[in-house]
Hints:
The complex is a heterodimer of chains A (114) and B (118).
Chain A: E1 4-7, E2 10-13, E3 19-25, E4 30-31, E5 36-37, E6 39-44, E7 51-55, E8 59-60, E9 68-73, E10 76-81, E11 90-96, E12 104-105, E13 109-113
Chain B: E1 3-7, E2 10-12, E3 18-25, E4 33-39, E5 45-51, E6 58-60, E7 68-73, E8 78-83, E9 92-100, E10 104-108, E11 112-116
Parallel strand pairs in B: 2-11
Antiparallel strand pairs in B: 1-3, 3-8, 4-5, 4-9, 5-6, 7-8, 9-10, 9-11
Amino acid sequence: DIVMTQSxxxxxxxxxxxxxxxxxxxxxxxxxxxxxxxLAWYQQKPGQPPKLLIYWASTRESGVPDRFSGSGSGTxxxxxxxxxxxxxxxxxYCQQYYSTPLFTFGPGTKVDIK
Amino acid sequence: xxxxxxxxxxxxxxxxxxxxxxxxxxxTFSSYSMNWVRQAPGKGxxxxxxxxxxxSYIYYADSVKGRFTISRDNAKNSLYLQMNSLRAxxxxxYYCARYNTATAFDIWGQGTMVTVSS
Lengths: 114, 118
């Protein structure tokens, strides 16, 4: 199974500042046939289900603010919130969907306001 | 509106059974693989089970294999999870989620809480 790790476990960022979350997979999630990374990012606010933010490592889901961006390839990925807003307080999870259907999630990163 | 609504959660004793349902609306349910994902209190997300659009392919996490059964009824736009031999560690919010080959789990239900306790 592909194991996903995230760092840090939590971070506190001032409003308007940048937040960066890292995700690492135990093996590559890049499909050479289409050059796509099968890596998604989700946001989960307290008491709510997860919400898809980013798929294919860097493609923003419709309606997601452009302050959210994803980058990386192969085994190392990053979610960046360019200017943290109060409504961005949440737990963020990465997920690989390369080894479908044995999907695995990272342990999550909690983002708070400093 | 595209929507998934889970039901069937509740309190059950260890060793007991429960059947969860997920009602889909607003999209062509029969065209998508569907999944169950759970989240224990204060913990992260754990994929539980997956079923292909025509029920031809079914998969389970090792933690539930042999105890849980996923099924679907495309005529009723519904997904199910039969949970038997429940354990305390199965206590969690259970979400159903639509899988899209390109966009992963793009639609999630609100979840239903399952508590296994004596």
